[in-house]
Amino acid sequence: WKDRGAAVSIQRHVDSNGNQTHRIVKKGVQDFNFGRTLGEGSYSTVLAATDRQTLTEYAIKVLDKRHIIKEKKVKYVNIEKNTLNRLGDHPGIVRLYYTFQDERSLYFVLDLATGGELLGFVKKLGSFDEECTRFYGAQILDAIEYMHSKGVIHRDLKPENVLLDDKMHVKITDFGTAKILDLPSQNRTSNTDGKTQLDRQEQDFANNIGIPDHERANSFVGTAEYVSPELLTDKSACKGSDLWAFGCIVFQLLAGRPPFKAGNEYQTFQKIVNLEYQFPPGFPGVARDLVERLLVLDPTKRLTIENIKSHPFFEGIVWGKQLWKQKAPRLK
Ligand SMILES: NC(=O)c1nn(CC2CCNCC2)c2c1CCc1cnc(N=C3C=CCC=C3)nc1-2
Fold first, then answer.
1. Strand 20-26 vs strand 44-51: parallel, antiparallel, or unpaired?
2. pLDDT tens, 43-59?
3. pLDDT at 12 (0 to 100)
């Protein structure tokens, strides 16, 4: 495991003859005060923490080494670290500052998003108005565009993974199931002979989220409601899969519920592959047009990011840095 980046603390040391020396030591657990638990994964826990020297607050993801090895997740953890390293410079993506380790655990020192999940606000308000949906949709899309430009597909975008920082701006997180498209031409995660080969990570992930056996053989899925049809039919993710999830999120912000939801995962999957969803009465027409052009079964027929940015729904949005400088609209 190669630690990435390093933060050091300078420790003043007076030796037995009273000579003062300074030791440079890599930051470690002892440099932080750990606070509340922000989230738990199957082999990781995310805690709020404060750097005792700088008083800066972070989220620290603690991964249990023994568990990672036992559950054969080493590849996952490295993919998450490599993905976060690639995505280190965008305001809409949780940043990995550095990692360190001790005999038991690995530690990822990450941005702390104090506002919590976007999902929490949608639930509290019931739904967002067009202005708020436009702002948060634009920030999410800008972050997706950056990810894709770095050859990363998130693969599990959902309102729970869209966090908000202290300025109520978006911070996308949880790249544990992301896919790095090594070759620029490789737009789908399938191997060279064209057969969609479940890679170890996908197979491992499928094993872990309890897919029924008859589906387990060849389907890697994220969270049921936001999974794209191509992941359920030909088992491969592509950049369009993130745009499908984006369409589900825009729908959910305005409707207060995701487009595809049924009694259980299998029935939800059925609705997705049959494109069975309805807009609630009052759903704004211009947003409906956008969603209808994203929730398209054939990923090659979905709007591209450029198309979405110039769609009338996003009229008035100034894309780029300005989007992250402006004040977030008050959620009402
Ligand atoms: N899996 C992760 O990497 C991760 N998980 N969380 C907490 C999860 C809680 C459930 N929904 C998804 C996020 C975080 C991170 C990254 C780093 C990170 C930074 N800030 C927060 N902040 C939170 C504040 C309030 C409630 C939940 C999270 N959380 C995280």
1. unpaired
2. 899 999 999 999 999 99
3. 82
Contact 294 CB / ligand 1 (< 6 Å): no
Q: How many angstroms does the Cα of residue 326 sit away from the middle of ligand 1?
A: 24
**Choice from 174, 177, 223 to test ligand 1 binding pocket (greatest atom count within 8 A of CB):** 174
Residue 156 among the catalytic residues: yes
Q: Kindly state the tokens that stand for 6.
A: 């390093």
User: Residue 38: CB within 6 Å of ligand 1?
Assistant: yes
What confidence score (pLDDT) does residue 185 get?
47
Q: 205 is written with which tokens?
A: 């992930």
* Ligand 1, atom nearest to 175 Cα: 3
Ligand 1 proximity of 116 Cβ (cutoff 6 Å): yes
Q: Note the residue count of the chain.
A: 332
Whether 110 contacts 100, CB under 8 Å:
no
Q: Which DSSP symbol is given to 91?
A: T
Q: What DSSP string describes 117-133?
A: EHHHHHHHHSS--HHHH
The CB of 113 under 6 Å from ligand 1? The reply is yes
Tokens (6 digits) for 81: 């670290």
CA of 93 to the centre of ligand 1 (A): 12
**87, 146 contact by CB (below 8 A):** yes
- The 10s digit of each residue's pLDDT in 112-123 is 999 999 999 999
